[in-house]
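Run log, item B.
One chain of 104 residues. Sequence copied directly from the ordering sheet:
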Amino acid sequence: MITVTSATFDERVLNAPGPVLVDFWADWCPPCKMIAPILEQLDAELGDRLTIASLNGDENPDIASRYGVLGFPTLTLYKDGEVVHQMVGAKPKRHLLAALAPHL
């Protein structure tokens, strides 16, 4: 998993060579803490086909606002610089895999 900020978002997410799943999260968010281990598992399993990035929405509100992120966690999948899928709230691993599969 990589960490992105407002300064690195365009380069590491929008200009990435493959799909990137961005986890918009906040320190105060219990569901964000619940989903973190699942995202680490997905990174280990899908790391050759998918980049998983973490962005603290409270510390980078301009990026969260740009993509209409109103709640945490929000998982947004980018492909070729465009949003291709978005999920709000903590989801079980099987749900995340099913949502990601068509885009990998």
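Observations after the first pass:
- The chain has one domain: 2-101.
- The longest strand covers residues 82-88.
Flagged for discussion on Thursday.
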